[in-house]
Records
---
Amino acid sequence: MKGSELHGEDRHQGVENEGNPAIGFDAMEEEQGVPVEDKEIWLERGQEDLLQVSDVSIFYEDFPPLPDFPCMSSASSSSSTPAPVKAITSSLSSSCSSSASSSSSAASWAVLKSGAEEDVEKNHQHGNHYYHHNNIDDYNSRAMEDPVEVTTAALSSTCSMEVPQPLDQAMEGVECMDVMEDFGYIDLLESNDFFDPSSIFHPDEGLFEEFQMEQNKPQDHPQLQYDQQAGNEEITKSKNDHEADHQGGRSDDLAMVFLDWLKSNKETVSADDLRRVKLKKTTIECAARRLGGGKEGMKQLLKLILQWVQTNHLQRRRLRESSSNGNLPYPYNQDPLQNQNPNTNSNINCIPIPANNHSNPCFTQSPWNVAPPPYLAADPATVMPGFSPMVCDPFSNGASNINGHPYGTPQDYMLQSYQTWPPSQFDLASHFNSFADNNLHSAQPQNPAFTGYGNQYPYQYVPANDDNRLARLGSSATKEARKKRMARQRRFLSHHRNQNHHNIQHQNQGAGDPHERLANDPIGAPPGGQSNPGSWVYLPTAAGGGSASTTVDALVDRPAMQAQNNYHRQPAAERRQGWKPEKNLRFLLQKVLKQSDVGSLGRIVLPKKEAETHLPELEARDGISIAMEDIGTSRVWNMRYRFWPNNKSRMYLLENTGDFVRTNGLQEGDFIVIYSDVKCGKYMIRGVKVRQPAGPKPESKRAGKSRRNNSHANCPAAANNGSGSSSTTMITQTRTVK
DNA sequence: GGAACATGCATCGGT
DNA sequence: CCGATGCATGTTCCC
């Protein structure tokens, strides 16, 4: 039974804080054993801050890697989650300080590892895996099957391929070492962190030596020369591990694959090419899983990456050649883009990992035998944040149950990323979204590998068979394309600076994340800069839904939108408070309160679909006791979640809501929002008061009965515009009564 | 027609 | 008697 432990009968309504007096996010982080500093950054850093962090930060700010796709899944979200990517600064520090063999729980970065290291890495991965699950288990068994819960890992599977600082080393004998360095290097940084390019190549870390050891078979590969440094503990360890692997009957397939590839490409692929490959550990894990899992999955992934490197190199060489012809006044290692912004998108390439090599036609064939997917062959200067390897969402039930990612969910991160995408990439986001949407209804069932548990967060890896997009990307290697990209980048940089002042407009392009969009939306903020967590709601009053193109889209009754991912339904009121639910909370459902909900009955009818999707499954009609922490007051209400048989169906109710409603002064037309804390799995509720300063009050009966307007009771604004005739959007300050 | 939801209303139990 | 509980029914909309 999902979340059964959350609903202990011994809880009492109105118990203050339930032993968690200060249910602050930081406090919760500490409970989780998660480094607080990271979380603080994650939770509190604004984009402005990120912009000031460092070049690397700027890089990511400009072209944030897309959130990882939850696979097996969200999160969201977008999530989701959502465990979104951690703050850049955090990643920088951790990446710099972490060594490849570090086993710190805080270190979860991973670079593709050679076969020799794979097992060691597997241990790390498992460790991480257990780490997450243990956390989940610790808090809520339900989380185990909650896609979003795992999002912490899945979402962070941001894949980025690095174009590091140019190395003078050519592809001499050391090339192989460099290769090893790359592929034998498993950085264990925070799984959600971005890598720090400067931290990658530390010859004294003995990391690539590990791979050397793995590959140290001169008789077989005389062309490979290694530094035979002795006494390196890492080497010894690696060797031992390697031997152990062999003894254990585990083949070093990865190493052999890599060696084969090296032999085939040693003359055409440089160390630089290989150095550019860097993947997050979680990305690798998820990608490998998507590719079949286990060693085979890792091997497939390695092949994919090598193929990418190869293709990438060829393209670069073509560019170099054209450069040497006088077309480009800069040498290969001084890519103008890099010079211009050494840490921006030109430094990143995201390898989209096929979600499922069985389901994705692009990956049904061995990467060895097929032309590399165009997006894999992208010019290093081609930023493809949209293709960040959202390879998997272990919780892939789909909804970041967003969700919403929300959001915060896995989906949350994903959506969050949208905001900072260059305009040219919104189409990707949009595409991505639509794909996810489609999958919500169709692809998931047929593609279990994509989604996992319940597919509540169906956003997936963008299908690789988008001809248009592929064509667009495939042309990126051309000089013209590069020029365009540069111009686009400039525009985006400029655009980004003004982003906070134009969030609404910006947000309405493509499928930007309403969560993040609203986070910085000055309009949405309470007047006077009030940071009170009270509920403010932004009311669209457009009649007939004619004003779809406003920030309140998330509130406008659009069944199609609602049918999408849950994170799209993150109440604007929440987003507009500066409060960032996407960091810890996953939006579950919301309900516009009807008269019967706020009356003396003390029960609120919950939308059936959402209830069944996001709340614990009910075996008995008596339901379960469920503690709902009031987000605004931290007060915990012990409610009962149950259902009534209704015809052949069920009607889901939240009971014991009378005091909550009264305390919050909720009235008909107001709404409640229910979240789950992605960290500890507890449920949180917020009452949002909706008040229209002018205009007709909601026609209680009529508006309430309009399915159109209520759209499964998930569209708060809709309930208030049922009779509205104004086409203007008004901002209404409301506040949750505490 | 059926699903989902709002709510009417019958019933029950406590005071 | 009154509030709580739970079922039934009406309304609306989607398929």
---
Amino acid sequence: MGRTKQKQQTRDRHQEILDAAARVITERGLAETRISDIAERCGVSPGLILYYFESKDRLLVEALTFANDQFYLRLSRELRRMRSARQQLTRLIELSVPGLLPEFERLDEWALWIEIWVLALRDPSMAKEREVLDRRWRQSIAEVIHRGRSTGEFPEGTDADELGMQIGALIDGLAVQVLMNDTTLSPARMRQVCMDVAARLIGFAPEPVPA
Amino acid sequence: MGRTKQKQQTRDRHQEILDAAARVITERGLAETRISDIAERCGVSPGLILYYFESKDRLLVEALTFANDQFYLRLSRELRRMRSARQQLTRLIELSVPGLLPEFERLDEWALWIEIWVLALRDPSMAKEREVLDRRWRQSIAEVIHRGRSTGEFPEGTDADELGMQIGALIDGLAVQVLMNDTTLSPARMRQVCMDVAARLIGFAPEPVPA
DNA sequence: GGCCCGAATCTGAACGGCCAGTCAACTCGA
DNA sequence: TCGAGTTGACTGGCCGTTCAGATTCGGGCC
């Protein structure tokens, strides 16, 4: 019990720091994130951060993948609840639209994704991590499609992994635009566009457009 | 003549610096770009950089939009040469796939795009600039579609601007993946996927898949 | 032409702030 | 008593920016 609790606490401190780091990065951006900001957010001294992580760079990489893991866990938890593949797809899209769901004072995971991309361009460990995260993301989409086909909701057609890649890429591209507050693309519209294109690519009847 | 030449030279130095900055950013990344790197690349002293630009930050923003302008100029120059809309679309896609065309020792403009996104999240002037650049990009696609419809190559259907947004987002998303050297998506395959999805969304007969 | 002057261009040393990472010392629970 | 956890002052280097002066250039004047 004692040992468990101690380990537990250690891990908590780890996660606490990772979580704080992710929040700070989201708010201030990777480039403007100082160790002391993270420490302050934890209510802890700067030295302690370096006691738990060997360097700032390493911490940042871990924080980014940590945050993405959180998103993924939430996504799969929610999808598991849904009955129909169509509902799943809808929810998956909704969770992907920046700023659509204000619940949980949700950070914009997408801002972190872009930071991941920049890092991954030069940092090999981040590049590797990124590919894992990305594959998981596309696979989630493909699984929904598989499921829809097995229940007969979606017709057979293009390979599901291929569709996962296509729809995933579409969501990525649109999400960036929405995240940037592009005046021509609101969150609600992005949701609509995604559903629409997904319907056409997968081959099911689209939702009626709201008047 | 004298005055013209003088102005010309000044602008040359300006552009020279912008160009050098863009190259350095592409190679080392925005975060690792020092003023002295840019100066060295120009064969000039660091002080001079600040003589032409009021601050490092401003220079970086200008360099990024400068590079994007270059890409756009090249794109529209090339498209103007093409006869059919289909050729235009193909070329547009080819120019968008990172690393597909090695000609011109082409930098990967996409790396710069991602840096633009990160900056735009926090820097209002960059955000504004980004929206302009992005609109221009999507509009280029929409124009090709319009053209194809006016010549009868493409059928009528979904609004061309809407399609520009959809196809543009798809290209963005895929380009990021390719840029990251994702093992599951080669440049050639991205080209194929883009053509394929574009064909389905616009509604023309796809290219035959090469054996 | 040859000379001069002022402005534009350019240099590189020096300044100053910032911040990652170190470390010696302290706390406290087991 | 021991050692994991924690502190916060300190340091060492880095880099944007400034600045005082050197150099170059172009055009007016004899």
